[in-house]
Write a structure and sequence with these properties.
This protein is mainly α and about 140 residues long. The protein is about 70% helix and about 5% strand. The protein contains 5 helices and 2 strands, in the order βααβααα. It is globular, with a radius of gyration of 15 Å.
Length: about 140
C-alpha cells in the first residue's frame, strides 16, 4: 500500500529543498520510466498507431527533460517529508517500469506513461495533492492489469 503525503501542516519554514542525492534518485526514476516506455514501444511497434507512437515519444521526452532538470538543479522541489515521497515514488515507478514492457493493453501502457509524466511534473512543482493523485492513479492502473 502506497502511503500518501499529508496536504496539511506544511509550514514554509519546515520544508526543505531536496538534497542532491534525493534529486538524483528521482532523476534516475524518471530515466528508468522513459527507458521502460521505450522498451514497450519497441516491443509493440507494429501495434501502435502513429499517434500512439508520438504520445510515447512525448512521454519519454518529458520524463527525460524532468530528469535533466533535477540533475542540473533547475528544479528545486521542497518537501517536509522527502523520504516518504522518495519511497512512494520509487516503489510505484519501479513496479510500473518492470511491468510496462510486457503489458498487453495499449491503453493501460499509454495511461501509465501519461500518469508518470503527471507525477514527475507534480514533484517538480512540489504539488503534494498532485503527487498523491498521480500515485493513487498509478497504483490503480497497475492493480488493474
Amino acid at each position: 500500500m502506497v502511503k500518501t503525503l499529508s496536504t496539511t501542516g506544511f509550514l514554509p519554514s519546515m520544508s526543505a529543498i531536496l538534497t542532491a542525492r534525493q534529486r538524483a534518485t528521482l532523476s534516475q526514476q524518471w530515466k528508468l520510466m522513459a527507458y521502460s516506455l521505450n522498451q514497450y514501444q519497441t516491443a509493440h511497434w507494429t501495434r501502435l498507431t502513429l499517434e500512439q507512437q508520438l504520445d510515447i515519444n512525448a512521454y519519454q521526452n518529458s520524463l527525460l527533460c524532468r530528469a535533466q532538470d533535477m540533475e542540473d538543479g533547475l528544479t528545486q522541489p521542497t518537501f517536509s517529508n522527502a523520504e516518504l515521497l522518495l519511497a512512494s515514488v520509487c516503489e510505484l515507478t519501479q513496479r510500473a517500469g518492470n511491468e510496462l514492457p510486457g503489458m498487453r493493453s495499449l491503453s493501460l501502457a499509454l495511461n501509465i506513461g501519461a500518469i508518470s509524466v503527471a507525477l514527475a511534473s507534480a514533484v517538480a512543482r512540489s504539488n503534494t495533492q498532485g503527487i498523491n493523485n498521480a500515485l493513487r492513479e498509478l497504483s490503480s492502473l497497475l492493480n488493474s492489469d
